[in-house]
Amino acid sequence: MGRTRMEEQWWKGELAADIHQTLRTKELKLPVYKAHSPQIGMRRYFIDLLTLLSNRCNLCPTARHLAIYLLDLFMDRYDITVKQLHIISFACLLLASKFEEKEDKVPKLEHLNNLAYMCNVNVVLNKKDLLRMEMLLLENFNWNLCLPTPAHYIDYYLCVSIGENDLHNGWPIISLTKIRDCLEKYAYYFLDFSVHDHTFLYFRPSLIAAACVCASRICMQISPAWTTQLELLTCYSWEHLAQCIEMMLIYYENDIKEASNIKKQVRIQHPEEEAVGNLSHQATTQVLFQHSSYHPLAQHSATLSQFQSPVQDLCSAYRDSLQAHRPSSPLAGSADSSRHSCAALEASLRPSAQTLPIAMQVALEP
User: Fold this and answer.
1) Structure pTM?
2) Which CATH superfamily is domain 32-147+352-366 in?
């Protein structure tokens, strides 16, 4: 069992560098995302739906990210009705799980229908329609599902995320294992929210994964923020990552503020329950979501200032967009639910998606 598990962890094997290079080569040929979908306002709803479904099915991060990426590309090309999008979302999840998971972990039809009912999705799936939709999706992607996402790189980069010479709050690290485990949680936190905003699709997947590691080091106040070893492994310098990191830290700061506001509301409404909750979860919360002054950024302040100039409007618009009220339900499917959309980019991108081909419309009709 241990040997099988190690073979699955390609990032620890002898061929890790070759596999990484192959992924980097393939990502150069990824389709260009244009944000042309007329339904882009509902994108966040379907991302949350796919995330919930993949979690319920215990799918790996690469399967979840691939399913979301397939849906993004398909929505970007065609004008699709909401009902059709639900069926396409399930088909994307099935294709991604078949490509990334073992056969016994691929969701069964009955399970998917049960999940659809639990999520209040007014769709009843059947094997024939799902199969036809999968075939149409495969034809649309030219039968190529080997599409690298940030999730395909993150574990490889995490292997060198912490070094013996790194400092934590200016002091030598006593337990590399504990710090590495905590940093991994941060990295996956940034990785998961990167799919919520289509703006991140303008970055290469490998760059997003590298930025997740660097942003995690900054939040944990590990210096230097970006090491020579990480730069050599990822082939990205600080200058390459600065814009993506800036956007991630903006999101992180707003997430901290919202969590603090929710905590205050809970304290006011349920003071006794909140006190009990603090006793049991205080340590975990402080470790994973501690306030950070981002001291490691100081060492790159001059470089970051120069690099930010061309993207100042982008980051400013992005920061403003994050001030919008977040929906109370993770599946609140309204046009405003895409809370992380970047106004500066959307203004320059006009929806011009094609109408769904007749063959696909026929396949999706009840």
Assistant:
1) 0.74
2) Cyclin-like (1.10.472.10)
